[in-house]
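Hey team,

Filing this mostly as a record. A colleague (T.K.) asked me to run one chain through the structure pipeline before their review meeting, and I want the input and output archived in the tracker in case anyone asks later how it was produced. No errors, nothing strange. Just documentation.

Input sequence:
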Amino acid sequence: MNENKQIVNVTVAGGYEPSVVKLKKGVPAEINFKRTNAQGCLDVVHSNDLGFSEELPLNVTKTVQVPTDQSGQFTFSCGMDMFSGKVEVE
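Output structure:
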């Protein structure tokens, strides 16, 4: 992370690693999701809290812009809501 942007890489393989993403409030942020496992429901990541939904093709990095204007804990999950992760903005 630098002062201008926060970038976090999340590997999607049988869940999310890391499953908790910590961000600083007020600093623009993005999460790079990369699916490395063909498990079906992990082919989508979405978050109603953060306002995104992305298809995750196998072995392709998808970047999602994450709002950091409010502190709190926000969830994201797979298409079937079986696997989830959390974004903590402090």
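Quick notes for T.K.: The first strand starts at residue 6 and ends at 12. The chain has a mean pLDDT of 95.
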